[in-house]
Every structure is written in structure tokens, then in C-alpha cells.
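Journal club prep — side note

Before the paper discussion, L.F. wants everyone to see what a predicted structure for a comparable chain looks like in C-alpha cell form. Sequence:
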Amino acid sequence: MIDILATFITFFAVIDPIGTIPVFLAVTDKFEQKAKNRIALLAALYSASILIFFIVMGERLSSLSRYRPLRAQGQCWPQYC
């Protein structure tokens, strides 16, 4: 449960929905309300799709690049492992 909460907090900080509200309002200022709703829905669907893609495929993609974190190699400082 703690892992899920930590992951949610990390994603919330990365996506920053509160910080994007002023940008969305400024960009869609001249659109009608129906268009704003559609743009918001599409943006949410696109960002969720990208996020889910990297949640599922992230480890596979990093293994293709032969990237191994220092923790996996046993070469990090003990207090950070």
C-alpha cells in the first residue's frame, strides 16, 4: 500500500495538474466551453496512455539499452542502497 501511495505522489508531482491549470486556461481562452471540455478530455487520455505505456514498458525498454542502476550492480553507497 505504501508503494502505491509513493508512486501516486511521484506521478502527481511529475504531472503537476495544479500547475498546468493556468496554462490550460490561457491556451484555451478563446475556445467555447464544449471545445475546452474536449481538449481537457483528450489531454487526460493522451497523458494517461503515455504514463501507462511507460509503467508497463519502462523496465523492458531500459533492459534493451543495457542500463543497470548502481543498486542492481551492488556499487552504491550503503546508506543509499
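L.F.'s comment for the group: Residues 33-64 form the longest helix (32 residues). Keep this in mind when we get to the figures.
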